[in-house]
Amino acid sequence: MRQDGAQGRYSALSRLTADAGAAGIVDTMQPLVAHWMGRVPYREAWDLQKMLAAARADGRIGDRLLLLEHPPVLTLGRQASDAHVLAPAGMLEAQGIEVIRVERGGEVTYHGPGQLVAYPIVKLAEREVYLREYVRALEAAMADTCAANGVEAGRREGHPGCWVDADGPLVRKIGALGVRVERGVTYHGIALNVTTRLADFALIDPCGMPGLRSTSIAAELGRRTEAPSTESVEAAARVFAPALTARLGAALAWSDEDPRVAPAPAEPAGSAEVQAAGSAR
Questions:
Q1: CA distances from 95 to 21, 112, 114, 173, 245 (A)
Q2: Residues annotated as part of the active site
């Protein structure tokens, strides 16, 4: 469902800070530092998340937000059923599509070009945010990003993610969600279809739901033949990041530094010089 362009692009974001305040979420922490990374192989981004999550738990860095897209890949949550991967192994291998089981919750997910992937590395307790609030913030930020592009989307009760016509007869999934928390720090995150090639979702039962229809921002705007582009994903990332930080009541800082640079080791106990959280790289 579309919204008026100007209203859809700006009205949702203009409400975010007020909504965060009304929810009692107040920013008293270091900014959440966002990195736009472009197209990154899945395993590389997975390793990076785990490295940054460990560094965040140790207090060597502040909160981070990785924004990127992946080459085609299928990922399975830790308890997901292999039966929801519909494509034969030989077909996937011929197309260079790997199937990877990871630590997050949820069922099978497709990642590929034209899809915004966001991996927040956030220490929830320091922001005084409960896991349920955090999941709702991710869902709302996806919906805000859709609204800013003229597409109406939102939550669907009992089904995590972001949905178009959530309560109607033609429900369609536009964004997936699966998170992991270790030592109080989040990783994994969301995948929002921007200009994603929707035919690739035929490889799976999205989210383990046979017959589920997937959609994208481009498709909802009547541009189903639009080719996936990294530029469209970056544009969506530039909306999603402030939407998420506003929903969390956090400040946002963009960084051009490469987050793949290993964080500094933790300072030994009793050290005269302590590295401020959020400044180590």
A1: 47, 12, 17, 24, 37
A2: 207
The number of distinct structural domains making up the chain is: 1
Domain with 166, as residue range(s), is 5-254
Given its phi and psi angles, is residue 250 left (phi above 0), alpha (psi -120 to 50 degrees) or beta?
beta
Contact 133, 122 (CB under 8 A): no
Q: What is the DSSP letter of 264?
A: P
Residue 165 lies in a domain: yes
In a domain, 156, yes or no: yes
Residue 137's closest CA among 32, 44, 237, 245?
245
- Asked, for residue 229, whether it belongs to a domain, the answer is yes
Mapping DSSP to helix (H, G, I), strand (E, B) and coil, where does residue 245 land? helix
Nearest to 202 by CA among 27, 14, 58, 72: 72
Token pair recorded at residue 231: 């530029």
* Residue 151 covered by a domain: yes
Cα-Cα-Cα-Cα dihedral sign, residues 105, 106, 110, 111:
negative
* pLDDT tens for each residue of the chain, 281 residues long: 444 443 333 344 444 444 444 444 434 469 999 999 999 999 999 999 999 999 999 999 999 999 999 999 999 988 888 888 999 999 999 999 999 999 888 788 999 999 999 999 999 999 999 999 999 999 999 999 999 999 999 999 889 999 999 888 899 999 999 999 999 999 999 999 999 999 999 998 887 777 789 999 999 999 999 999 999 999 999 999 999 999 999 999 999 999 988 676 655 443 333 223 333 33
